[in-house]
Amino acid sequence: AVAAVSGRAAATSRARAGKALSRLPAWPLPGAASCAEVGSGWRDQLVCASPLLQQSREFYFPRKNWFPWRQRLIKDRQAALRKKRHILPRRHDPEERPVFYNKEDGHVLTFREKDIRMGCKRLLDYAKLIRGRQLQDAIDWIESLARMQSEPILKMLRDAMQECSERHKMDPARIYVIGANPARGKYVKELRKHARSNFGITKRPRNYFLIRLREMPLEEFFHRVYIYNKVPRSLASDMRLALHQNRVSPLTQ
């Protein structure tokens, strides 16, 4: 019986030591330059015995087995696939206009809508939805949501389309949304009446929403549509409707 009690006590002490070890920090104790300066306690001896417990970990833990050599191989493979998708001429003609242009090539317009009664998280969802799309596709996507809150963004996109086509003489088919970012604005405080002559203060946001539009050059638009096969949905639906209604010449069919 005495041996059984002593065995249970030893198991309990080992379990407590394991729990204490799991709670040990992953960095060396402050002010200790070597193991001799740490101390003679069992916890200090455990810290000195394991070199892994003395290593300081970074805040960001990368993906498992995501080594630098593997990242380099994957990036090279992706670059080769992108180069393979491009159907470029075999010889370079210096008099020919380039296919790809910089995004800041001078055909960029910025539009901003202020005092939008939505939070930044909701505006960020709209920004992710329309970023990188053709302007007409972005309008169709926002219209298909059928939300009352999306009316300010829908009005801004329609006004931007009208101004780009009428004032700046841009081609509506080549206008793309290259940037969409929300910005935090002010809060409007209002009184909310409660029961028994009590009241509360509510804060309603008034935020900003900014979009940047770019007219894609004709060569880049041709490469995107015919080589990348990334046809805008609005343009594809118009083409299908024209074919269905026989509004296209029989030679092009």
Task: Give average pLDDT, whole number.
Answer: 80
Radius of gyration: 32 Å
Q: Major beta sheet, specifics?
A: 3 strands, antiparallel
How would you write the strand order of the largest sheet?
Answer: 1-3-2
> In total, how many beta strands?
3
* Beta-strand content estimate: 15-25%
Task: Report on this structure.
- This protein has helices spanning 2-22, 42-49, 68-85, 120-130, 135-145, 151-166, 218-227, 233-244; strands spanning 108-116, 175-193, 199-215.
- It has 253 residues and is of the alpha+beta class.
- Strands 1-3-2 form a 3-stranded antiparallel beta sheet.
- Strand 2 (175-193) and strand 3 form a beta hairpin.
- Helix 5 (135-145) runs antiparallel to helix 6.
- The longest helix is centred in the N-terminal third of the chain and has 21 residues, at 2-22.
- The termini are far apart.
- Mean pLDDT is 80; it is low at 21-34.
Quick structural summary:
The protein has 253 residues and is α+β, with helices and mostly antiparallel strands. It has helices at 2-22, 42-49, 68-85, 120-130, 135-145, 151-166, 218-227, 233-244; strands spanning 108-116, 175-193, 199-215.
